[in-house]
Amino acid sequence: MKKVIWGLILLLVVLHQDIWNWDNDRLVFGIIPVTLAYHACISIAASAVWLTAALTAWPDHLEDESESSEAAQ
What we know:
Blueprint (H helix, E strand, L loop, with lengths): L1 H15 L10 E2 L3 E2 H23 L3 H13 L1
Antiparallel strand pairs: 1-2
């Protein structure tokens, strides 16, 4: 699963470089420039990837250390 997460992160890095939209003057919903809407979607995708990484690829041994240190206090 970690390789999938890293692949998604790499994909987001590549998609973030949107040089093809720089000269686009169209508006989304009549008020938002296409480039701004594109970056909003990239930000939402990045947060979804981070959530997926935190839920699936988080190292279990860190949680074990945290719980044992809390019990000792």
